[in-house]
Amino acid sequence: MSTFEFTVLGASGGPSEGGTQSMLLREHGTLGSEKWICVDAGSGLHQLMSMLAKKQRLAANERDSCMGDRIESLYRNMEEPLSAFIDRRLHVLRGLNSSELLVSEDNIICAALKMFNKIREYYITHPHLDHVAALVINSPAVKAEGKTILGLKSTVDALKEHLFNDVIWPDLLAEKSTPLDFNVLRELKVHKCVSVPNWSILPFPVSHGQTVVGRVPNFSTVYLIKDQRTDNCLLVCGDLESDLISGKPYLSNVWNYLSENIPFNRITGIVMECSSPSSTEKAHLYGHMSSRYVVHELKQLSKAYDRPLDGLKVIIIHVKMEPQEIDPRLTILEELRSLASMAGIGDIIFSIAIQGYTFIL
Ligand SMILES: [Zn+2]
Ligand SMILES: [Zn+2]
After folding, report:
1. Which of 48, 260, 312, 320 is deepest in the core (most CB within 10 A)?
2. Looking at residues 117-134, what average pLDDT do you find?
3. What spacing in Å lies between the alpha carbon of 208 and ligand 1's midpoint?
């Protein structure tokens, strides 16, 4: 039974601006509800407008099937079919899964703003700009209902000190009737989601390389979202590096927690960053994953469960769109499929997160 609807507002890991990591999540089968959360906010309002506009332009008979959609690529080909990025076993929809959001009386801008103000909680993985740019730029559009920005202490402190500091951006929190609020999450402590009361959210700290100056460890977050009704779980990663590189057991802790607490068939998906293809040298990963490290970590997950990961849905996000002959998203997808097959860790369903599409998980 599907539990989660995962809409990709932004999937890029840069370096071009716009379209960077942001995911909109809600319970599957709750059409008409206003229960949304966002994990990361590199993209936001503009993407909501684009999705509504695209849906509005399509004729009624074109609204359903999307696997033949042409996705902008700008590498070997200007476009690639959606099916080149997504395993056909996945249920994917164009835009938001929300008939109620078809624009009727409102224009696109007004409808997108209404939608935007239904998102009341933002779970931020770490404060890098590609994960929070839209949170900042969109903030003047936040209405009185407000938004809560949640993250581990290092994330919340950095956002307050370095972004909403009255220099880089107005200190909206200093206003008496501020519509923005921050909430510090505690590491490895279950947090009850307010927007979606059936969900509990467990934050794991993970390594994300080191700072440039002083080589101080840099942290990010993996969120485990559990639906209390179905016991199904979705694991959503921000930027992160493999334990093989950090030399610390951050990801092992995640895999061990999962294997000790969550039956394998309750993991409905893992959204995992993979910034670069395997050929990228370790020294050039800068706290990120490449295909071979993703497969190494999945192998650790397979060992933790002591079983192959047959049927596990792994959705790759945060690919760096760097200059090369073939679209790096396609290179990474091919590498993951072949490396996982060589590692003998089971029939994993790999796909790439594509901006503007919703995965039903
Ligand atoms: Zn980062
Ligand atoms: Zn990033």
Report:
1. 48
2. 97
3. 7
pTM of the model: 0.96
298-338: pLDDT as tens digits: 999 999 999 999 999 999 999 999 999 999 999 999 999 99
Question: How many angstroms is it from 239 CA to the middle of ligand 2?
Answer: 5
Q: 340 CA to middle of ligand 2, Å?
A: 24
The one-letter amino acid code at 66 reads: C
Instruction: Report the C-alpha gap between 208 and 219 in whole angstroms.
Output: 5
Task: Tell how far the Cα of 209 is from the centroid of ligand 1, in angstroms.
Answer: 9
Domains and CATH numbers, the chain: 4-360 (3.60.15.10)
Please write the tens of the pLDDT for every residue from 205-239.
Answer: 999 999 999 999 999 999 999 999 999 999 999 99
Q: Label residue 191 exposed, middle or buried (CB < 10 Å: 0-12, 13-18, 19+).
A: middle
Pairing outcome for strands 91-94 and 119-123: unpaired
Distance CA 226, CA 232 (A): 6
Where helices occur in the chain by DSSP H, the ranges are 45-57, 108-116, 129-137, 153-158, 243-246, 250-261, 291-305, 328-343
